[in-house]
């Protein structure tokens, strides 16, 4: 069970959350939600001592490997460096034996530090105090630090401590590594090399241990062991009552994909570099390294400073939790890498990126740190290679983005087989990689969104136009002519609602494809006027002169489903004719997906049941194409049929509820989004945190409660705080200027240090200001 009040350290109130009792049957939750990282690597927070059911994960971004031809590429689980075996008086220490008091495991979001402490009494009645600390440095992306303190409280103890580097781990059984050389230098520095089997990425992990007894450095003779895929040092101590043993373990992680290491593809030089980096870390020492890490995080919190005065302290904590995880999972250092749907916190979704990045997470970066948003979009630019290949393989033209992507040029990497079908007992086929195609226009949308909000023309010239033109070309080759109805259709797809497979004219997909085509046409005309040179360069590789008339013809005749007499837009051609099931029992579920214990996916396909926001997502993205009453009618129709079985669902519903001025509903749904990872469900995060939902939490606040939107290239604000909130304050970047917004129930204030005039639309009215704007909300 997690506690959100920092009882023991009040200065960490709204900055931390704590596990107050350890349950070895539910380790996954804390391992994920308390995971550490820095975008380069992610370390799951498994405990130092081993338990059955623990998942020890260390992922380095972008190091994908394919175990064999029957599997898809995934982020390999590198050697474990966190396990430490502690033998006390000859018996293995475990929280499953003896008695435990004063237990707490805390993730301190402010300093990105994991701590654990408790007093353990063994079967013989001897009490020992344990304290653990851990960080993954935000200052040196390759560094992990671990600290352990042990103090016998009643009598002396004999302690044997064994720690090292253990490559006997796998990804749920798939072993991604060839064994490499293991070497111990100077009886002190451990180094283990492992190389991925197919992608041939070298990993070099180097580690050292240092000890102090009551603050005096101790240099015990280690027992050194090298086994298959494992190396370990064992140290023995006799501790007197009241004496404290302190161990520091420092680890350096490098791979041949490192862009910041000179000649990283040369294994010898990578090994040397890793060892030297470790020795430098040793010179600085744990405490100094932690201080630098702390400073790096202080700068992050300074940049993303959020303040919420709410009756519920949890709200600000939830937002900080979301920002923390977005920071630890985003590869800010390398544009060849993306964000996994579970970040770097678990094996779920194999480290692959989905539309989660562009639609759910990217807005946070667009409005808070546009440089990072640009890096993430450049990853998609590099992905054009795989997208073009996918289009060709499927008989289309242009760029057809993969539903799931790993290394950018890999192309489609969605697995083909999934969970059990309760009717047939066979594995269900995953169709998304073949027919969930809206991702292509989602990416074009994201490029446009970034450009509108940042004004980054250089990005567009170098990357953006090409992405938009070639995705439009995909759609124009994808559309199918329906002679009977004289229109272009998109048949045989999956829309955002993955409980409806092989449908025709999913409204979201059709409208977004239309948007993509129109976007390309608009930019084509604009470039003709403004930058013909660039247009002719792009024309040479993309054949634009021939393409543009095709885009026009398709955009003019694509079928865009219209509302029926009740004002309902059909999610797809057959949705509204399907049987309706009372979802009340399933909606009350503690766990997602319980419907599939009673029905197979084929059966669900034939009912009006949605997994997640589908048409409602469309209303959010293309908001000014649909009137408010129509949105409300569709919300009321579809929400009762939506199970919210995807974590992407609550935030979209919350934002729409804000748009309908239903603050209470918006707030309730915001809380439900926040509770996906931080809520009471013990197993909801076992496979990793829900990255898109974290971006969604930020969007609930900024797009929902502050009502910030980019519409027609302008920044709109329409704030309406939830009942429980007195004040909301946050930074927002718009066209290169940083705006600091402070919203109270009665007043909105915006400050900027930018010299230029800021123009925006407040409650539908144009306003402009320089420096500062104050606006009374009381009469709105
Ligand atoms: C959702 C998708 C999402 C994926 C990764 C699925 O369950 O239906 O929309 O992209 O998870 O988060």
Notes on the protein architecture:
This protein is of the alpha+beta class and 780 residues long. It folds into two domains: 2-262, Glycoside hydrolase, family 65, N-terminal domain (Beta-galactosidase, Chain A, domain 5, Distorted Sandwich), CATH 2.70.98; 307-728, Glycosyltransferase (Alpha/alpha barrel), CATH 1.50.10.10. The protein is 33% helix and 24% strand. The chain is built from 20 helices and 32 strands. Strands 1, 2, 8, 9, 10, 11, 13, 14, 15, 16 and 19 form an eleven-stranded antiparallel β-sheet that branches. A five-stranded antiparallel β-sheet has the order 7-6-12-18-17, with no helix packed on it. The chain has a five-stranded antiparallel β-sheet with strand order 20-27-28-29-32. The longest helix is centred in the middle third of the chain and has 24 residues, at 507-530. Bound molecules: beta-D-glucopyranose. Beta-D-glucopyranose (BGC) is lined by residues 341, 349, 354-356, 496, 498, 611-612, 646, 648, 692.
Total of helices: 20
List the ions, cofactors and other small molecules found in this model.
beta-D-glucopyranose
CATH architecture of the largest domain: Alpha/alpha barrel
Relative strand content:
15-25%
Q: What structural class do helix, strand and pairing data support?
A: alpha+beta
Q: Give the beta-strand count.
A: 32
- How many structural domains does the protein architecture include? 2
N-to-C span: 42 Å
Unreliable spans are: none
Kindly provide the radius of gyration, computed on alpha-carbon positions and rounded to a whole number of angstroms: 27 Å
Please, what is the average pLDDT?
96
**What is the CATH topology of the largest domain?**
Glycosyltransferase
- Give the overall form: globular
